[in-house]
């Protein structure tokens, strides 16, 4: 092995080591700031935080609602386990084999959004281009027949939840339909687990993470106030 190759290897190790060290310092700082944050006091700023998101990165939500009020909102994820992802990986490989490798398949989970508007819960789904592909509305009768339960933090769910602090919880909501219920996972923070872009989940912008926790807690709190059967414990006041 030439000296130039050795130098490049050592250089890369130093670079990656430096990045890892920097990330660990940022995570430590974030944890300390979370510990020193009065989240209950932060809840008083929830309207400001919601408007900030709805006027910027989530500005497409008010457009989709066409004048209907957005009382609260949260992100939603497919009830998708590690076992499911392995199955999809196998299915994608078989599809690729069927085309002799000329086409590569990859099962994609796209972002979904919950919007609480009056007595209704809106579920917006997106396609791979980020455009709204489906807009479902669950009325009071549907929601009274629905249920919610806390999900143990394990595997992928735990990995994403921990990025927003040690107190973030995950919930499985089962929404009643005429056929089988729709089961989705949401958190007490704005989190996607299988979206195309997961960069926000691992963001070390402490203030933004605080805002995302407040917004999601506000959604869960309002949902539980309107429908006692969908009430969860341990939320911010």
Please provide a brief summary of the model.
With 237 residues, this protein is α+β, with helices and mostly antiparallel strands. The chain has helices spanning 3-35, 39-42, 46-54, 60-65, 82-98, 140-144, 155-161, 206-226; strands at 72-78, 112-117, 120-126, 132-138, 147-151, 170-175, 182-187.
Walk me through the structure:
- The chain crosses the membrane at residues 6-23.
- Keywords: Membrane, Transmembrane, Transmembrane helix.
- This protein is of the alpha+beta class and 237 residues long.
- Helix content is 43%, strand content 19%.
- A seven-stranded antiparallel sheet has the order 4-3-2-1-7-6-5.
- The N and C termini lie far apart (62 Å).
- Mean pLDDT is 81; it is low at 81-107 and 195-199.
Throw out a few tags for this protein:
237 residues; alpha+beta; 7-stranded antiparallel beta sheet; 7 strands; 43% helix; globular; transmembrane helix; transmembrane; membrane
């Amino acid at each position: 092995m030439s000296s130039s190759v050795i130098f490049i290897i050592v250089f890369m190790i130093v670079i990656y080591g430096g990045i890892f060290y920097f990330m660990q310092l940022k995570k430590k700082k974030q944890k300390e700031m979370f510990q020193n944050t009065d989240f209950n006091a932060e809840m008083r700023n929830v309207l400001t935080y919601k408007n900030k998101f709805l006027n910027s990165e989530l500005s497409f939500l008010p457009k989709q609602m066409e004048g209907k009020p957005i009382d609260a909102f949260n992100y939603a994820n497919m009830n998708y386990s590690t076992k499911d992802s392995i199955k999809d990986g196998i299915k994608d490989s078989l599809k690729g084999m069927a085309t002799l490798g000329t086409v590569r398949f990859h099962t994609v989970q796209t972002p979904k959004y919950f919007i609480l508007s009056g007595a209704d819960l809106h579920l917006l789904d997106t396609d791979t281009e980020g455009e709204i592909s489906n807009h479902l509305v669950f009325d009071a009768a549907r929601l009274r027949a629905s249920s919610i339960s806390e999900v143990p933090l394990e595997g992928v769910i735990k990995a994403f939840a921990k990025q927003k602090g040690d107190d973030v919880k995950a919930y499985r909501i089962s929404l009643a339909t005429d056929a089988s219920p729709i089961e989705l996972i949401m958190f007490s923070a704005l989190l996607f687990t299988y979206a195309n872009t997961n960069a926000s989940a691992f963001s070390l912008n402490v203030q933004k993470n605080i805002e995302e926790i407040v917004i999601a807690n506000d959604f869960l709190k309002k949902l539980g106030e309107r429908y006692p059967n969908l009430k969860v414990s341990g939320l911010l006041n």
